[in-house]
Amino acid sequence: MYRLLVLLIVVSCLYAQNEEVHSQVEALSQAKKQKVLDIVNANKDAVVSVQLVVKIPAMGNFERKLEIPGTVVSEEGLIIVSNAQADPMVAMRRFQQGAQNAKTEFTDIKIVCNDGTEVPAQIAMQDQDLDIIFIKPKENKKKFSYISLDKTAKPKLLDDVVVIAKLDASTGRAPLIFHTRIMSIIAKPSTYYVIFGISAGVPAFDENGKCFGLLLSRVGGGGSMNNTSNIASAMAMLPMILPAEDILDVIADLEEEEE
Q1: Which domain holds residue 130?
Q2: Which of 28, 34, 66, 162 would you call most buried, defined as having the most Cβ atoms within 10 angstroms of its Cβ?
Q3: Is residue 194 within 8 Å of residue 185, measured between CB atoms?
Q4: 156 and 77 housed in the same domain
Protein backbone atom coordinates (compact mmCIF):
# COMPACT_ATOMS: atom_id res chain seq x y z
CA MET A 1 0.00 0.00 0.00
CA TYR A 2 2.84 2.37 0.89
CA ARG A 3 4.61 1.65 -2.45
CA LEU A 4 1.38 2.28 -4.35
CA LEU A 5 0.95 5.60 -2.56
CA VAL A 6 4.54 6.64 -3.42
CA LEU A 7 4.03 5.62 -7.04
CA LEU A 8 0.85 7.71 -7.26
CA ILE A 9 2.66 10.71 -5.80
CA VAL A 10 5.55 10.33 -8.28
CA VAL A 11 3.14 10.00 -11.24
CA SER A 12 1.23 13.07 -10.07
CA CYS A 13 4.45 15.09 -9.80
CA LEU A 14 5.59 14.00 -13.25
CA TYR A 15 2.20 14.88 -14.73
CA ALA A 16 2.23 18.30 -13.09
CA GLN A 17 5.79 18.89 -14.31
CA ASN A 18 4.84 17.87 -17.85
CA GLU A 19 1.83 20.23 -17.81
CA GLU A 20 4.06 23.07 -16.60
CA VAL A 21 6.60 22.43 -19.38
CA HIS A 22 3.78 22.27 -21.95
CA SER A 23 2.37 25.57 -20.67
CA GLN A 24 5.79 27.19 -20.87
CA VAL A 25 6.30 25.96 -24.45
CA GLU A 26 2.83 27.19 -25.41
CA ALA A 27 3.54 30.59 -23.85
CA LEU A 28 6.84 30.86 -25.73
CA SER A 29 5.12 29.87 -28.98
CA GLN A 30 2.43 32.51 -28.50
CA ALA A 31 5.04 35.14 -27.59
CA LYS A 32 7.03 34.31 -30.74
CA LYS A 33 3.90 34.50 -32.88
CA GLN A 34 3.01 37.88 -31.37
CA LYS A 35 6.53 39.14 -32.03
CA VAL A 36 6.17 38.26 -35.72
CA LEU A 37 2.74 39.93 -35.88
CA ASP A 38 4.18 43.07 -34.25
CA ILE A 39 6.90 43.23 -36.95
CA VAL A 40 4.30 42.77 -39.69
CA ASN A 41 1.86 45.35 -38.31
CA ALA A 42 4.63 47.92 -37.87
CA ASN A 43 5.87 47.60 -41.47
CA LYS A 44 3.14 46.25 -43.77
CA ASP A 45 2.06 49.71 -44.99
CA ALA A 46 5.56 50.26 -46.40
CA VAL A 47 5.16 47.29 -48.76
CA VAL A 48 3.14 48.59 -51.71
CA SER A 49 2.10 47.53 -55.20
CA VAL A 50 3.61 49.06 -58.33
CA GLN A 51 1.74 48.95 -61.64
CA LEU A 52 3.59 49.49 -64.89
CA VAL A 53 3.21 48.87 -68.60
CA VAL A 54 6.13 47.02 -70.19
CA LYS A 55 6.92 47.51 -73.88
CA ILE A 56 9.60 45.70 -75.91
CA PRO A 57 9.90 47.41 -79.36
CA ALA A 58 12.15 44.64 -80.72
CA MET A 59 9.28 42.17 -80.26
CA GLY A 60 6.81 44.07 -82.41
CA ASN A 61 3.71 45.12 -80.52
CA PHE A 62 4.60 43.34 -77.30
CA GLU A 63 2.99 45.17 -74.38
CA ARG A 64 2.09 43.89 -70.95
CA LYS A 65 0.65 45.46 -67.82
CA LEU A 66 2.26 44.18 -64.62
CA GLU A 67 1.69 44.62 -60.91
CA ILE A 68 4.61 43.82 -58.64
CA PRO A 69 5.45 44.43 -54.97
CA GLY A 70 7.82 47.17 -53.87
CA THR A 71 9.39 48.43 -50.64
CA VAL A 72 9.17 52.10 -49.64
CA VAL A 73 12.52 53.23 -48.22
CA SER A 74 11.91 56.96 -47.68
CA GLU A 75 9.14 59.25 -46.51
CA GLU A 76 9.17 60.93 -49.92
CA GLY A 77 8.14 57.64 -51.53
CA LEU A 78 11.37 56.20 -52.94
CA ILE A 79 10.51 52.58 -53.74
CA ILE A 80 12.64 49.58 -54.64
CA VAL A 81 11.27 46.90 -56.96
CA SER A 82 12.97 43.89 -58.51
CA ASN A 83 14.30 44.53 -62.02
CA ALA A 84 13.77 40.85 -62.91
CA GLN A 85 10.10 41.01 -61.90
CA ALA A 86 9.53 44.22 -63.85
CA ASP A 87 11.42 43.24 -67.01
CA PRO A 88 10.43 39.93 -68.66
CA MET A 89 13.56 40.12 -70.84
CA VAL A 90 16.06 39.74 -67.97
CA ALA A 91 16.40 35.96 -68.24
CA MET A 92 16.28 35.98 -72.04
CA ARG A 93 19.10 38.53 -72.30
CA ARG A 94 21.32 36.30 -70.24
CA PHE A 95 20.64 32.99 -71.92
CA GLN A 96 19.31 33.62 -75.43
CA GLN A 97 21.48 34.78 -78.26
CA GLY A 98 20.28 37.96 -79.93
CA ALA A 99 18.17 39.07 -76.97
CA GLN A 100 20.91 41.23 -75.43
CA ASN A 101 20.01 44.22 -77.60
CA ALA A 102 16.28 44.03 -76.92
CA LYS A 103 15.49 47.07 -74.80
CA THR A 104 12.56 47.32 -72.42
CA GLU A 105 10.50 50.46 -71.98
CA PHE A 106 8.42 51.17 -68.87
CA THR A 107 5.42 53.48 -69.10
CA ASP A 108 2.31 54.42 -67.12
CA ILE A 109 3.94 53.66 -63.75
CA LYS A 110 1.74 53.95 -60.65
CA ILE A 111 2.30 53.35 -56.95
CA VAL A 112 -0.76 51.70 -55.41
CA CYS A 113 -0.79 52.41 -51.67
CA ASN A 114 -2.56 50.19 -49.16
CA ASP A 115 -5.44 52.65 -48.85
CA GLY A 116 -6.06 52.31 -52.59
CA THR A 117 -4.49 55.65 -53.48
CA GLU A 118 -2.73 55.63 -56.87
CA VAL A 119 0.31 57.88 -57.24
CA PRO A 120 1.82 58.53 -60.71
CA ALA A 121 5.50 57.59 -60.66
CA GLN A 122 8.66 57.34 -62.70
CA ILE A 123 11.95 55.44 -62.71
CA ALA A 124 14.68 57.23 -60.80
CA MET A 125 17.50 54.72 -61.34
CA GLN A 126 18.08 51.17 -62.51
CA ASP A 127 20.84 48.81 -61.33
CA GLN A 128 20.56 45.58 -63.28
CA ASP A 129 23.53 43.94 -61.53
CA LEU A 130 21.81 44.21 -58.14
CA ASP A 131 18.32 43.65 -59.60
CA ILE A 132 17.11 47.06 -58.39
CA ILE A 133 14.79 49.61 -59.95
CA PHE A 134 14.14 52.77 -57.95
CA ILE A 135 10.65 54.19 -58.42
CA LYS A 136 9.65 57.63 -57.14
CA PRO A 137 6.49 59.77 -57.34
CA LYS A 138 6.36 62.30 -60.17
CA GLU A 139 5.18 64.93 -57.69
CA ASN A 140 6.16 65.01 -54.04
CA LYS A 141 2.74 65.58 -52.45
CA LYS A 142 2.36 62.60 -50.13
CA LYS A 143 4.20 61.33 -47.08
CA PHE A 144 4.71 57.58 -47.22
CA SER A 145 5.11 54.96 -44.55
CA TYR A 146 8.60 53.62 -45.07
CA ILE A 147 11.08 51.03 -43.82
CA SER A 148 14.44 52.01 -42.36
CA LEU A 149 17.21 49.78 -43.70
CA ASP A 150 19.54 48.75 -40.87
CA LYS A 151 23.10 47.92 -41.89
CA THR A 152 24.01 46.96 -38.30
CA ALA A 153 21.71 43.92 -38.41
CA LYS A 154 23.70 40.90 -39.56
CA PRO A 155 21.81 37.64 -38.95
CA LYS A 156 23.60 34.34 -38.61
CA LEU A 157 22.89 30.91 -40.02
CA LEU A 158 19.51 29.50 -38.85
CA ASP A 159 18.42 32.84 -37.35
CA ASP A 160 14.72 33.67 -37.68
CA VAL A 161 13.61 35.84 -40.61
CA VAL A 162 10.28 37.56 -41.25
CA VAL A 163 9.49 38.57 -44.84
CA ILE A 164 6.54 40.79 -45.75
CA ALA A 165 5.35 40.28 -49.33
CA LYS A 166 2.07 41.20 -51.02
CA LEU A 167 -0.55 39.41 -53.08
CA ASP A 168 -1.95 40.98 -56.24
CA ALA A 169 -5.15 42.92 -56.93
CA SER A 170 -7.23 39.76 -57.45
CA THR A 171 -6.76 38.92 -53.76
CA GLY A 172 -7.17 42.44 -52.44
CA ARG A 173 -3.41 42.97 -52.21
CA ALA A 174 -3.34 41.26 -48.84
CA PRO A 175 0.00 40.95 -47.00
CA LEU A 176 1.79 37.63 -47.52
CA ILE A 177 4.01 36.66 -44.59
CA PHE A 178 6.97 34.27 -44.57
CA HIS A 179 8.43 33.22 -41.21
CA THR A 180 11.54 31.20 -41.94
CA ARG A 181 15.27 30.87 -41.17
CA ILE A 182 18.56 31.75 -42.82
CA MET A 183 19.45 28.60 -44.76
CA SER A 184 22.82 29.70 -46.13
CA ILE A 185 25.05 32.76 -46.31
CA ILE A 186 26.94 33.50 -49.53
CA ALA A 187 30.10 35.48 -48.81
CA LYS A 188 31.68 35.85 -52.29
CA PRO A 189 31.70 37.67 -54.60
CA SER A 190 28.93 39.53 -52.75
CA THR A 191 27.11 38.75 -49.53
CA TYR A 192 23.62 37.28 -49.86
CA TYR A 193 21.39 35.58 -47.29
CA VAL A 194 19.56 32.54 -48.63
CA ILE A 195 16.03 31.62 -47.58
CA PHE A 196 13.06 29.93 -49.24
CA GLY A 197 11.51 32.99 -50.86
CA ILE A 198 8.98 33.20 -53.67
CA SER A 199 8.80 36.98 -54.05
CA ALA A 200 11.31 39.72 -54.79
CA GLY A 201 11.42 43.43 -54.04
CA VAL A 202 10.19 42.87 -50.48
CA PRO A 203 11.83 43.41 -47.05
CA ALA A 204 13.38 40.90 -44.67
CA PHE A 205 13.50 41.47 -40.91
CA ASP A 206 15.47 39.82 -38.12
CA GLU A 207 13.82 38.65 -34.89
CA ASN A 208 14.25 42.13 -33.40
CA GLY A 209 12.33 43.79 -36.22
CA LYS A 210 15.36 45.28 -37.96
CA CYS A 211 15.24 45.29 -41.77
CA PHE A 212 18.57 43.77 -42.73
CA GLY A 213 17.94 43.59 -46.48
CA LEU A 214 15.56 43.04 -49.38
CA LEU A 215 14.75 39.93 -51.37
CA LEU A 216 16.05 40.48 -54.88
CA SER A 217 16.48 38.06 -57.76
CA ARG A 218 19.90 36.59 -58.31
CA VAL A 219 20.38 34.72 -61.59
CA GLY A 220 22.16 31.46 -60.89
CA GLY A 221 24.27 29.29 -63.13
CA GLY A 222 25.47 30.41 -66.50
CA GLY A 223 26.12 28.90 -69.87
CA SER A 224 23.64 28.50 -72.67
CA MET A 225 20.17 27.07 -72.91
CA ASN A 226 21.56 24.72 -75.58
CA ASN A 227 23.64 23.04 -72.92
CA THR A 228 21.12 20.71 -71.26
CA SER A 229 23.36 20.13 -68.22
CA ASN A 230 23.00 23.83 -67.37
CA ILE A 231 19.28 24.27 -67.92
CA ALA A 232 18.26 23.94 -64.26
CA SER A 233 20.93 26.27 -62.95
CA ALA A 234 20.65 28.71 -65.84
CA MET A 235 16.93 29.27 -65.32
CA ALA A 236 17.14 29.55 -61.53
CA MET A 237 16.00 33.06 -60.73
CA LEU A 238 16.79 32.84 -57.06
CA PRO A 239 15.35 35.45 -54.70
CA MET A 240 18.02 36.06 -52.07
CA ILE A 241 18.40 38.76 -49.46
CA LEU A 242 20.74 41.57 -50.50
CA PRO A 243 22.12 43.20 -47.32
CA ALA A 244 20.92 46.66 -46.31
CA GLU A 245 24.47 47.97 -46.42
CA ASP A 246 24.75 47.34 -50.18
CA ILE A 247 21.33 48.87 -50.84
CA LEU A 248 22.16 51.98 -48.79
CA ASP A 249 25.29 52.47 -50.92
CA VAL A 250 23.17 52.52 -54.08
CA ILE A 251 20.68 54.93 -52.48
CA ALA A 252 23.61 57.22 -51.62
CA ASP A 253 24.71 57.12 -55.29
CA LEU A 254 21.16 58.02 -56.36
CA GLU A 255 20.98 60.94 -53.93
CA GLU A 256 24.36 62.19 -55.15
CA GLU A 257 23.16 62.09 -58.77
CA GLU A 258 20.02 64.05 -57.92
CA GLU A 259 21.84 66.86 -56.10
Answers
A1: 45-137
A2: 162
A3: yes
A4: no
Amino acid letter, residue 39: I
Q: What is the pLDDT of residues 154-177, one digit of tens each?
A: 999 999 999 999 998 888 999 999
Last residue of a domain, one of 102, 137, 172: 137
> Which is nearest to 215 in space by CA: 233, 230, 198, 236?
198
pTM assigned to the model: 0.83
Cβ-contact 67, 49 below 8 angstroms = yes
Give start and end residues of each alpha helix (H) in the chain: 2-43, 83-86, 90-95, 231-234, 244-258
Bridge partner list, 184: 194
How far, in whole angstroms, is CA 38 from its chain's centroid?
A: 18
Per-residue DSSP letter, 149? B
Radius of gyration for the alpha carbons in the chain, expressed in angstroms and rounded: 23
Residue at which a domain ends, from 137, 169, 195: 137
Examine the domain organization and report whether 241 and 173 are in the same domain.
yes
